[in-house]
Amino acid sequence: xxxxxxxxxxxxxxxxxxxxxxxxxxxxxxxxxxxxxxxxxxxxxxxxxxxxxxxxxxxxxxxxxxxxxxxxxxxxxxxxxxxxxxxxxxxxxxxxxxxxxxxxxxxxxxxxxxxxxxxxxxxxxxxxxxxxxxxxxxxxxxxxxxxxxxxxxxxxxxxxxxxxxxxxxxxxxxxxxxxxxxxxxxxxxxxxxxxxxxxxxxxxxxxxxxxxxxxxxxxxxxxxxxxxxxxxxxxxxxxxxxxxxxx
Length: 247
Prior knowledge:
Blueprint: H1 6-21, H2 27-34, H3 37-40, H4 43-63, H5 73-87, H6 95-106, H7 120-123, H8 129-141, H9 147-168, H10 178-186, H11 188-206, H12 211-239
């Protein structure tokens, strides 16, 4: 592969993954939006959605500390800024606590305390098989290449918008929850996506031999995210089948 073309090839592959696996296109979000309010307000259902979503996000937040290749001082500094947005109190609360508070405000039954979201191996014991598989995959592939990191950061803004919009009809105040407002107002997730992709392009230019594992990791992550949303969609389908939604 020509080194001068590697950035464009990488970007083209990411663009294709974006078109194919964009989270907001997944039927989970439209099914969630159409769920009758009396069912959506169920503390148990909201609690299960929260547990799965928080577990998936927790896995990526934990494993971002282990992403490879960003070893020079300048690259470490840029990686740290991304981590700081998730795990720093500078904006009034880390994302984990903001998310648990948002779902508590919806009336969700939170079955696992915040501080029990620790070891990913232990966390999987509390999860359904689909979410447990996702957490396990993140744990295994994040340290192998920058591809999974790129895909998660690339999709985060879209799925957060889709989740907020799906809940907003039943819970209009969700749009004022800091978990959403701080990210959207400050462009946090969009900035993370740009940085993740730029950092990966820098790495691939320096080490073209990393291209294949990076693409393999990106593909695996995109498919795993799609399967994760399918698990949530199956949860909703079990309680409220809807013939108008194509699965």
